[in-house]
Protein 1
Amino acid sequence: MSLVKTRLEDMPPLSSSERKRLRVLAARPDSELDFSDTPELTEAQLARAKRAVALPLKPAKVPVTLRLDRDVLAELKRRGPGYQTRANAILRASVLA
């Protein structure tokens, strides 16, 4: 099971037509947005709401030395290339939980 479903870094670059479409959408005023299919939140839902932690889209990576149990490292590597990225995603999810 992947903790990070889709990362911006893993997505293909936007085409020029996609970038143009996003610029057009971003320029539209909020008054033109259609919220008719979006239910309003109840008072109970609003009372349970929590502020999201704002993180940069792509935080700077910092080289570190980290000692891991041999079996933990083996499991991270067993799943293929990108074991350091997987370890980072697992640590991020744990820190934000």
Protein 2
Amino acid sequence: MASPGNPNSYYIGQECYKPVEKLISDGKEVLIVSPYMDSYYAKFLIEKASGRKIRIISSSMDSEAMKILKRKRPLGPLLAGLVIILSLDYLAYTVGKFSFGFGFLSLLLVISCLLIFKFKKYEVEVKIPREFVHAKMYINEREAIHGSANLTYNGMHKNVEHIEVTREKERVEKLREEFFRLWN
């Protein structure tokens, strides 16, 4: 474990998820190398993705995880909401009780949607390399974690794993460079 003032620490056990999930939650740009990834962590990444850029290198991601990460934001609920609001507005207008007007509600809906999508903006990119990459790295702007834990539920919560956490700028930058070497 870490000593006071030391920017490096390590963890051996079944709770690797704590520092890894914190790193993902705290970063604006998150870089991940994990040969295996499951749908549990694909969902976690999408939940935490708002306002972030996430790049993932994985040699053997499960198919459900890939579907989750590649899924586009659904327009169905947005369109359904627009149809409902416009229908209610039209109904209120035809009954003659009152109406905000077709244009006003549409404008309100468009502004609301733009604000929602602005705050939900994220980017997730996945690369599957030709050669099998067995490294495990989790990196953001301020810290990096590397060790034996895959980004799977078992790897983070059940298996006994070893990870090292560093906040040393030089080491974080070296691991970022290694990530981009693998990325390209």
Protein 3
Amino acid sequence: MVDDRAGRRRGWAAAAIVAVLGVLVLVAAGCGKSADQKANEAYANSVCNAVGSWETQVKSVASSLSVSSLSKTGLQSKVTQIQSATQTLVKQLKAVPPPSTSEGTTARQQINKLATEVTATVSSVKTAVAQIPSNASATQIASALAPLAPQVTSLASTADSTIKAVENAGGSLSDAFKSTDSCKSLTSSG
């Protein structure tokens, strides 16, 4: 009976050792995500969420632009909404640190270029609206809106193009931009 108990203990000890080794093998084999993959996905998710939220706001404001219902004050209000959304976007994009890789550096450059382009476009639109006379007629507002509408509409496509460029760059960060749900929904809707 003593030998039987000792044998069982050795069996349990061996099973425990096998279980621990199994866990170690799984961890060593890379089960789960690496720190780099998590950083890439976090960056992609943050960027795409910020861009997606901003695009929704800009598209909403752009779709509400109509000559018949806008005065200069109304138009300035719409531009202020777009400007505010754009400032929030730029702050969010700058607050997200890219992964510490060459891919992260390249993506950051593209994202910074996007921030610069959309800020410049919004500034240009704001300047054009400021030049509309206070007592502008519907015709004058329509004339002012004609060149502005494509600029506002192009904001979202500029953002989508940037995200697609990061996706097409190759590498693990590119894979994160392709596989993250917030990025997939952004590029599929754009």
